[in-house]
Design goal:
Largest sheet: none
Low-confidence stretches: 17-23
Order of helices and strands: HHHHHHHHH
Distance between the termini: 40 Å
Number of strands: 0
Number of domains: 2
Structural class: mainly alpha
Mean pLDDT: 84
Number of helices: 9
Radius of gyration: 16 Å
Strand content: under 5%
């Protein structure tokens, strides 16, 4: 259990690096089933689902959901949303893509859902956040 928590922590720290959601192939990640699963999620944040990940790694979706929450402290869907929002924020700062293009690229099905969740996470609409963040840089 401690080993799995360490994988989750290292994965989260790696994701905090600027413009990167990809976890490198470390021994901890490559030799741990849950580490591989987390890396896959980071690599495919814009398209993966609980059912797909469960099938790929040989879990029942309900069991994976339970284990994921137990190990990481958040639900699978909340973690996926956080990955998408973090990548969207990175893209807002590093590209000139529109909010619609970024929302679509990050796997959001609608712009309104993206905007609402972005506001909840960052306190501002994507356009306003981009403008204010670029002023600070």
């Amino acid at each position: 259990m401690t080993h799995l928590l360490m994988v989750a922590i290292v994965t989260e720290l790696d994701r905090a690096r600027e413009n990167s959601l990809i976890v490198p192939n470390s021994t901890m990640v490559s030799q741990n089933r849950f580490g591989k699963l987390m890396k896959y999620m980071g690599d495919h944040y814009n398209e993966c689902t609980l059912a797909e990940v469960a099938e790929k790694y040989g879990y029942n979706p309900d069991y994976l959901s339970f284990r994921f929450k137990m190990i990481t402290g958040v639900t699978f869907s909340k973690k996926m949303l956080e990955m998408k929002l973090e990548q969207a924020a990175n893209m807002l700062l590093s590209s000139e893509l529109t909010s619609d293009e970024i929302a679509q690229s990050c796997g959001f099905q609608s712009r309104s859902w993206f905007t609402r969740k972005f506001k909840e996470r960052f306190g501002e609409s994507p356009g306003k956040w981009r403008k204010n963040s670029k002023k600070l840089a």
